[in-house]
Amino acid sequence: MASIGYHASHEQFPPSQLLQWVQQAEQAGFTRCLSSDHFYPWSEDQGQSGFAWSWLGAAMQAAPGLEFRVVNAPGQRYHPAIIAQAAATLMEMFPRRFWITVGSGQALNEKITGTQWPSKSDRNERLKECVDIMRALWSGETVSHAGHVNVQEAKLYTRPDYFPPIIGAAITPKTAEWVGGWADGLITISHPPEMLKEVVEAFRRGGGEGKPMILKVQLSYDRTEEAALQGAHHQWRNNIFPSPVLSELYTPEQFDGLGEMVTPEEVAQKVRVSADPQQHIEWLRKDIELGFDELILHNVNRQQEQFIHDFGEKVLPQLTH
């Protein structure tokens, strides 16, 4: 059986509200939490951008029954030595309750540094450098490195007493295959079943066989189908574009301009929209059959308390017992 988690979307909600909702999620039976890590929201309608690393310490103290993950892009907005230090501190305080998941990032968040936004191939090279640097620091080494990122005689003195896993983020089969060779596991997002199967197979082919796999499930649940569809369209229409588009746009205004052309029906092709808990159960069971160890549920509309309550009562027991 897979572990089921709640997604804390800092782009959509104030961190104080997210703190309450992870506590409710813990009480409802969720056992994981995935935190986004954005400087900007995807749209003006989302309208938030809390700092994930400030929030994580509070959330891990407030919801001690949950394991936490964060999706981070080291290398531009964040120096990898600082992320290694931040993660090590959380892992020392909350042993074996935190994983870091890493990706090559989006211009939306990283361009604020005023430096050049690299090509995808350069971002991948930079990400692998950052992963190697963080692993060396967690091992207690003194690290110097010159490349896409530079490090001079860095050493961490506060470290956990275990070696933390690094989960690689991938949306496309090509990236998933590459991630399989160096990551300790995979995190991806929900796709139509055939494409999701391609991502899984590519990860395993690239070296990921036997490694854990996490799926961030983008869904919209509400009292009626119409409310679920409209809620998804209002909040998530800017997020359904192919990975190269999501990676290259610079501002929420640009995403909003592109999102104006997206219909509710198009959103429903990318987000699992249903007011029927049984339908969500059936979809999630298929994810488990594909081999995912962990499902992080992101209800993309604004009805979070209702989602947490209903899924805790009607969905989680069917998937975890």
Which secondary structure elements does this structure contain, and how are they paired or packed?
Layout: E1 3-8, H1 15-28, E2 32-35, H2 52-62, E3 67-72, H3 80-93, E4 98-102, H4 107-110, H5 120-138, E5 143-145, E6 151-154, E7 166-169, H6 173-180, E8 185-189, H7 193-208, E9 213-220, H8 225-236, H9 243-248, H10 252-259, H11 264-268, E10 272-273, H12 277-289, E11 294-299, H13 304-320
Parallel strand pairs: 1-2, 1-11, 2-3, 3-4, 4-7, 7-8, 8-9, 9-10, 9-11
Antiparallel strand pairs: 5-6
Helix pairs in contact: 1-2, 1-13, 3-5, 6-7, 12-13
Describe this structure in words.
By secondary structure, this protein is of the alpha/beta class. It has a domain at 1-70 and 212-321: Luciferase-like domain (TIM Barrel, Alpha-Beta Barrel), CATH 3.20.20. 46% of the residues lie in helices and 17% in strands. The chain has helices spanning 15-28, 52-62, 80-93, 107-110, 120-138, 173-180, 193-208, 225-236, 243-248, 252-259, 264-268, 277-289, 304-320; strands spanning 3-8, 32-35, 67-72, 98-102, 143-145, 151-154, 166-169, 185-189, 213-220, 272-273, 294-299. The strands form two sheets. It has an eight-stranded parallel barrel with strand order 1-2-3-4-7-8-9-11, surrounded by eight helices. A two-stranded antiparallel ribbon has the order 5-6. Helix 3 (80-93) links the parallel strand 3 and strand 4 (98-102). Helix 1 (15-28) runs parallel beside helix 2, helix 3 packs across helix 5 and helix 6 (173-180) packs parallel to helix 7. The model has no long low-confidence stretch (mean pLDDT 96).
